Amino acid sequence: MQRTILDNIAAIATAPGRGGIGVVRISGHGLTALAQAITGKAPAPRHATYASFLDSTGLVLDQGIALFFPAPHSYTGEDVLELQGHGGPAVLQAVLQRCVELGARLARPGEFTERAFLNNKLDLAQAESVADLIDATTTQAARSAMRSLQGDFSRAIHALVDELIRLRMLVEAMLDFPEEDVDAPDLTRRNRELSSVRDGLERVLTLAQQGSLLREGAHIVLVGQPNVGKSSLLNRLSGEEVALVSDIPGTTRDVIRQAIQLEGVPLHILDTAGLRESQDIVEQMGIARTRSAAEIADLILVLLDATQGMTAADRDILAALPPQIPRLFVFNKCDLMGADGKQEDTDHLYLSAKTGTGLDELRQRLLTLIGWHQEAGVFMARERHLRALKLARRHLAQAASEVARAELFAEELRLAQEALNSITGEFTADDLLGEIFSRFCIGK
Ligand code: GDP
Ligand code: ZN
């Protein structure tokens, strides 16, 4: 997918605000001349050249390091010039402005990486992992993004595609013969090779699902009657005082969001005002928010008072919850009851937000319920990738029921391959590319 790109693009590549160092990055063609105009000298390729950055009159805007990467050995595959100066907004703007005077235009978000993709420096899955690496909020998420960037995910996809191509060749060679001529050994071979691809796809999908969890995290909503201990539990889980704890029922009127991480998986926890009918208009608003928060939850944590067990008010809350979302019942304040009567089960557990009893068990249950099982070698994946993998899975399942009909079989294989190819960006529609790269930050 080689294209001619003629214009030069420039952007401040470092984060906005003040910093020790700030970098203006330029990509394009014939950047030796641009470097010469700004620094007054021709920079040696891939060497740190100490230089003054000059305006059109020769006034020194800043002093720093010029790094020149001639095409094709650069991030974008084009000439790339990096001007590393002082990290102040005004000085960086001035240097950027100078680049614009010299013919560069301001880069769109992600445009450097888009060019790297268009020049075959990265495939699409790798390009996406660049953004995911930058956006990663946990070490594990960053590590899995790095794995994708290094090509682990793409290699796994390519291996599947290669297997598919071999199988297609086998079948398509038969297409000239009448269907009746397919003999038993042929069918056996088709079946065997198809199940091998399907198994491989399942393994990739599992790793990708775990990676997606690392990227997106899971939404957990805390519901329960006023005073049952929702805020206390949230504070326990997050290790800071975020939610207001009080003895007066109904203190938590707004929905409080808290992001925590367990084993590197980001969890977005929402503490709510409790789902119950209320005359108080402020509290009613909280309840409305609870309902809508619960709608998008991956898991609902239903908090109950262990000393009272499930009450009629609790049943009212349960009735108001969206039925399709998995829930875990947690009996809080177990420190107030005797040791007897605390039977753990798969759908409930006992806990004390006050003493911390049962918290570790709760953390483990949360991870299991959202589908995390610490797979080794997880790669960063996005919704888009999961959709493509599932589409490929459907076509392969369809293929399995058409093994004897060469033409239909081959067509399903072709569609599965097309779905897989969309992950790495072979034959990807331009509008999808635009959509993906527009979400990057400027300068990347
Ligand atoms: P919320 O209204 O559901 O958010 O409940 P809070 O977290 O504000 O707690 C209400 C009251 O119950 C406070 O006085 C807490 O200190 C108390 N509480 C919360 N959890 C426990 C617990 O596990 N044991 C005991 N004994 N008290 C608790
Ligand atoms: Zn509360």
TrEMBL record:
<dbReference type="InterPro" id="IPR031168">
    <property type="entry name" value="G_TrmE"/>
</dbReference>
<feature type="binding site">
    <location>
        <position position="227"/>
    </location>
    <ligand>
        <name>K(+)</name>
    </ligand>
</feature>
<comment type="subunit">
    <text>Homodimer. Heterotetramer of two MnmE and two MnmG subunits.</text>
</comment>
<protein>
    <recommendedName>
        <fullName>tRNA modification GTPase MnmE</fullName>
        <ecNumber>3.6.-.-</ecNumber>
    </recommendedName>
</protein>
<dbReference type="InterPro" id="IPR027417">
    <property type="entry name" value="P-loop_NTPase"/>
</dbReference>
<comment type="function">
    <text>Exhibits a very high intrinsic GTPase hydrolysis rate. Involved in the addition of a carboxymethylaminomethyl (cmnm) group at the wobble position (U34) of certain tRNAs, forming tRNA-cmnm(5)s(2)U34.</text>
</comment>
<feature type="binding site">
    <location>
        <position position="231"/>
    </location>
    <ligand>
        <name>Mg(2+)</name>
    </ligand>
</feature>
<keyword id="KW-0630">Potassium</keyword>
<dbReference type="InterPro" id="IPR027368">
    <property type="entry name" value="MnmE_dom2"/>
</dbReference>
<keyword id="KW-0819">tRNA processing</keyword>
<dbReference type="Pfam" id="PF10396">
    <property type="entry name" value="TrmE_N"/>
</dbReference>
<dbReference type="GO" id="GO:0005525">
    <property type="term" value="F:GTP binding"/>
</dbReference>
<dbReference type="GO" id="GO:0046872">
    <property type="term" value="F:metal ion binding"/>
</dbReference>
<dbReference type="Pfam" id="PF01926">
    <property type="entry name" value="MMR_HSR1"/>
</dbReference>
<dbReference type="InterPro" id="IPR018948">
    <property type="entry name" value="GTP-bd_TrmE_N"/>
</dbReference>
<keyword id="KW-0963">Cytoplasm</keyword>
<dbReference type="GO" id="GO:0030488">
    <property type="term" value="P:tRNA methylation"/>
</dbReference>
<dbReference type="GO" id="GO:0002098">
    <property type="term" value="P:tRNA wobble uridine modification"/>
</dbReference>
<feature type="binding site">
    <location>
        <position position="246"/>
    </location>
    <ligand>
        <name>K(+)</name>
    </ligand>
</feature>
<dbReference type="InterPro" id="IPR025867">
    <property type="entry name" value="MnmE_helical"/>
</dbReference>
<dbReference type="GO" id="GO:0003924">
    <property type="term" value="F:GTPase activity"/>
</dbReference>
<feature type="binding site">
    <location>
        <begin position="227"/>
        <end position="232"/>
    </location>
    <ligand>
        <name>GTP</name>
    </ligand>
</feature>
<dbReference type="InterPro" id="IPR004520">
    <property type="entry name" value="GTPase_MnmE"/>
</dbReference>
<keyword id="KW-0479">Metal-binding</keyword>
<keyword id="KW-0547">Nucleotide-binding</keyword>
<feature type="domain" description="TrmE-type G">
    <location>
        <begin position="217"/>
        <end position="371"/>
    </location>
</feature>
<dbReference type="InterPro" id="IPR027266">
    <property type="entry name" value="TrmE/GcvT-like"/>
</dbReference>
<feature type="binding site">
    <location>
        <position position="25"/>
    </location>
    <ligand>
        <name>(6S)-5-formyl-5,6,7,8-tetrahydrofolate</name>
    </ligand>
</feature>
<comment type="similarity">
    <text>Belongs to the TRAFAC class TrmE-Era-EngA-EngB-Septin-like GTPase superfamily. TrmE GTPase family.</text>
</comment>
<feature type="binding site">
    <location>
        <position position="248"/>
    </location>
    <ligand>
        <name>K(+)</name>
    </ligand>
</feature>
<dbReference type="InterPro" id="IPR006073">
    <property type="entry name" value="GTP-bd"/>
</dbReference>
<keyword id="KW-0460">Magnesium</keyword>
<dbReference type="GO" id="GO:0005829">
    <property type="term" value="C:cytosol"/>
</dbReference>
<feature type="binding site">
    <location>
        <begin position="271"/>
        <end position="274"/>
    </location>
    <ligand>
        <name>GTP</name>
    </ligand>
</feature>
<feature type="binding site">
    <location>
        <position position="121"/>
    </location>
    <ligand>
        <name>(6S)-5-formyl-5,6,7,8-tetrahydrofolate</name>
    </ligand>
</feature>
<keyword id="KW-0378">Hydrolase</keyword>
<dbReference type="InterPro" id="IPR005225">
    <property type="entry name" value="Small_GTP-bd"/>
</dbReference>
<feature type="binding site">
    <location>
        <position position="252"/>
    </location>
    <ligand>
        <name>Mg(2+)</name>
    </ligand>
</feature>
<feature type="binding site">
    <location>
        <position position="251"/>
    </location>
    <ligand>
        <name>K(+)</name>
    </ligand>
</feature>
<dbReference type="Pfam" id="PF12631">
    <property type="entry name" value="MnmE_helical"/>
</dbReference>
<feature type="binding site">
    <location>
        <begin position="246"/>
        <end position="252"/>
    </location>
    <ligand>
        <name>GTP</name>
    </ligand>
</feature>
<keyword id="KW-0342">GTP-binding</keyword>
